[in-house]
Design brief:
Layout: E1 2-10, H1 15-28, E2 32-39, E3 47-55, E4 67-72, H2 75-81, E5 85-93, E6 108-111, H3 114-120, H4 127-138, H5 144-154, H6 163-175, E7 178-181
Parallel strand pairs: 1-4, 4-5, 5-6
Antiparallel strand pairs: 1-3, 2-3, 6-7
Length: 183
């Protein structure tokens, strides 16, 4: 099993940390992983994306141009990365901030209203964990217990008290992912 993922949105949405947690989760399952971030000079408010590869086999290159899954959090990223999803692949997006939904007919499309759900849960910083939960419901490439281990590894110890909230956010995402189209 090899899963090649692009996660893309604005800086400040937790794009890079979502990818980092996913990569650490793969490490906790003894899988090969690659985490390759990319962000504009603006950082917060600029565009950011991260390529994550989780595999049972050695990863030959972290630099790829087509993906099994695209997790999209803004319109600029939709415009740029929708064409890069492999036919039969998955595109998961938060409709908040998307003015033109995906148009392809040869991919599986899902939504999760992560921004709205995070606001309802009282903490907009857990937005990325809601989206991660939705992704893991669609493609359970790592076990939830390993995601929690990944959170412990990637969060500074002073934030470990927030791990239960993050776990609740992941569960919220799993329960609220919506299928738009399957092929």
């Amino acid at each position: 099993m090899t899963e090649e993922i692009i996660i893309a949105g604005f800086g400040g949405q937790g794009v890079l940390s979502m990818g980092k947690i996913l990569a650490y989760s793969g490490v906790m399952q003894d899988q090969e992983v690659s985490w390759l971030p990319s962000y504009g000079p603006e950082m917060r408010g600029g565009t950011a994306n991260v390529t994550v590869i989780v595999s049972d086999e050695r990863i030959s290159s972290p630099s790829i141009s087509s993906f099994d899954t695209a997790i999209i959090l803004n319109q600029q990223s939709m415009d740029k990365f929708e064409p890069t999803v492999k036919p039969g692949g998955v595109l998961l997006y938060d409709p908040n901030g998307i003015s033109r939904p995906p148009e392809r007919k040869d991919i599986n499309i899902y939504t999760v209203e992560g921004a709205r759900l995070a606001a309802e849960m009282g903490n907009t910083k857990i937005f990325n964990m809601i989206v991660l939960g939705a992704y893991l419901k669609v493609k359970p490439i790592v076990k939830l217990e390993n995601v929690i281990k990944g959170l412990r590894k990637s969060l500074p110890e002073r934030y470990h008290k927030l791990i239960p909230l993050n776990e609740d956010a992941i569960t919220m995402g799993m329960k609220n992912v919506n299928e738009v189209q399957t092929v």
